[in-house]
Write a sequence for this structure.
């Protein structure tokens, strides 16, 4: 995307997700302390913070997997978020492919639920078509009949990403999805996820402790403090894409955020 | 891989030969009329195949009767054990609450139930109950202990997409535990089959491999009893192999671990 169209896009920014005053305690341990931020429609937002600062907890709360101890309801398009109502997708840090379903079956899983449980009127041949398109987009055509144990870790994460995007999610949550991958695969996957996001334009919240990854991916970065996590800063990254890790501007932003995240 | 298989086969044949040799050696050494040698046993087998037993029942009739009984007892054990195991696994409080009853019963050998069964049950239900006792607990315990091992990430994937509890159980929990349920079934089938002699001790019918063993033992025709023993062993082996093949077909998605 060129700089000018991006500017135009930022002008009519619409708030998609509103996270307000989220507090979470595990027993006596205060993990999240009054965390608030919002996410614009089709934005790629990264949440960055020191290890163990409660990023995953925050994401689980947003997804509805974990109740907040205290919070204003998290809003999506102005309504309280509800996985039974909104299309939410989650790419987990650990491998999440169902071992008894092949690649195609795994990618289809979310749509199967939407159809069977939520009675969304999706026709079976539409499901097939969407699955076929996304398999093609993530480059797994040759592997669609393979089972998870037959493919590599990077491919498994691509399956999870395809499963997440294929439902046309209102909100896509990604929890350090490349944490288990080696560095080369990780660079490759970052490029891939941007390519898919630019093509499909969804609202993404991407959690990472890797600052370089955040600066490479994000339109804005929410920096959290160490435990208990509060929002320390929200930093817009206005670099043109594709971004270059060695660009002096990139390095400067990375250094600034590193200084913010530092807790030692 | 091929080499390992064929060398395994050769070793098995060798092991059988050594076993038969040892048996023959012990028989010729102790020279007891109550310890038949291999040749007498084979002769007894041929006699049973050709002429049937003393009451005129053919060997196949005995085998068939025992198989029907194991089928009924084992089938009932699966029918009760698997759903109950799922429920108790999904609602651990039920298992915790019933633990004090279930666990001690589990350790009572089926043969110890015989006096009570004689009083309470009649006919076919006696066979079924004893075999059921043997098969039920491995199936129940394997099923219920497999539930906590369901990967929580898989459950979360379903929940995030909006799955309700019933969908999650049907599409995540059950496929996850199926391999262990089948493993429990295999153990249960083995234990149930081992109870066939106890069951036929009190079943009150004159057919069945267990009954054959007992009858000929009373008559001190031990070579005929041994034919029954060997047949029980071989049939058990075959049933186990069949289940293993089913497991391999069903769960080809599992890691093929080679140690």
């Amino acid at each position: 995307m060129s700089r000018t169209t991006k500017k135009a896009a930022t002008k009519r920014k619409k708030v998609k997700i509103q996270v307000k005053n989220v507090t979470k305690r595990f027993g006596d341990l205060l993990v999240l302390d009054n965390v608030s931020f919002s996410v614009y429609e089709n934005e790629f937002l990264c949440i960055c913070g020191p290890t163990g600062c409660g990023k995953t907890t925050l994401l689980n709360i947003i997804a509805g997997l974990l109740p907040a101890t205290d919070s204003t309801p998290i809003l999506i398009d102005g309504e309280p978020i509800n996985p039974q109502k909104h299309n939410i997708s989650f790419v987990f840090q650990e491998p999440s492919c169902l071992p008894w379903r092949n690649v195609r079956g795994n990618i289809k899983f979310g749509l199967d639920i939407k159809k069977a449980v939520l009675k969304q009127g999706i026709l079976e041949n539409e499901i097939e078509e969407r699955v076929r398109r996304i398999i093609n987009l993530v480059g797994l055509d040759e592997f669609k009949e393979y089972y998870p144990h037959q493919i590599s870790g990077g491919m498994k994460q691509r399956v999870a990403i395809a499963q997440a995007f294929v439902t046309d999610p209102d909100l896509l949550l990604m929890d350090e999805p490349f944490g288990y991958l080696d560095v080369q695969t990780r660079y490759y996957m970052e490029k891939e996820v941007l390519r898919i996001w630019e093509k499909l334009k969804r609202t993404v919240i991407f959690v990472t402790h890797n600052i370089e990854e955040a600066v490479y991916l994000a339109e804005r970065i929410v920096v959290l403090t160490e435990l208990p996590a509060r929002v320390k800063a929200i930093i817009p990254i206005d670099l043109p894409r594709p971004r270059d890790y060695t660009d002096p501007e990139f390095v400067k932003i990375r250094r600034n955020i590193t200084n913010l995240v530092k807790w030692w | 891989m091929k080499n390992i298989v064929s060398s395994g086969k050769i070793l098995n044949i060798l092991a059988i030969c050594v076993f038969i040799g040892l048996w023959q050696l012990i028989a010729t050494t102790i020279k007891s009329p109550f310890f038949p040698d291999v040749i007498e046993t084979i002769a007894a087998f041929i006699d049973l195949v050709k002429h049937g037993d003393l009451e005129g029942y053919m060997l196949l009739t005995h085998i068939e009767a025992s198989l029907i009984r194991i089928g009924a007892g084992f089938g009932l054990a699966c029918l009760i054990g698997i759903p109950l195991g799922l429920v108790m696994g999904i609602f651990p409080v039920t298992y915790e609450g019933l633990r004090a009853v279930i666990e001690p019963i589990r350790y009572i050998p089926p043969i110890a139930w015989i006096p009570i069964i004689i009083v309470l049950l009649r006919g076919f239900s006696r066979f079924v109950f004893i075999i059921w006792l043997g098969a039920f607990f491995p199936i129940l315990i394997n099923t219920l202990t497999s539930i906590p091992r369901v990967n929580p990430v898989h459950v979360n994937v379903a929940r995030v997409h909006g799955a309700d509890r019933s969908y999650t159980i049907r599409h995540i929990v059950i496929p996850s535990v199926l391999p262990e349920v089948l493993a429990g079934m295999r153990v249960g089938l083995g234990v149930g089959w081992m109870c066939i002699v106890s069951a036929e001790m009190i079943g009150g019918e004159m057919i069945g491999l267990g009954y054959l063993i007992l009858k000929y033992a009373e008559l001190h025709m031990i070579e005929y009893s041994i034919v029954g023993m060997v047949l029980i062993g071989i049939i058990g082996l075959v049933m186990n192999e069949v289940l293993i093949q089913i497991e391999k077909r069903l769960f080809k998605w599992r890691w093929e671990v080679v140690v």
Observations:
- Chain B has two domains: 1-31, 37-250.
- Chain B has eleven helices and no strands.
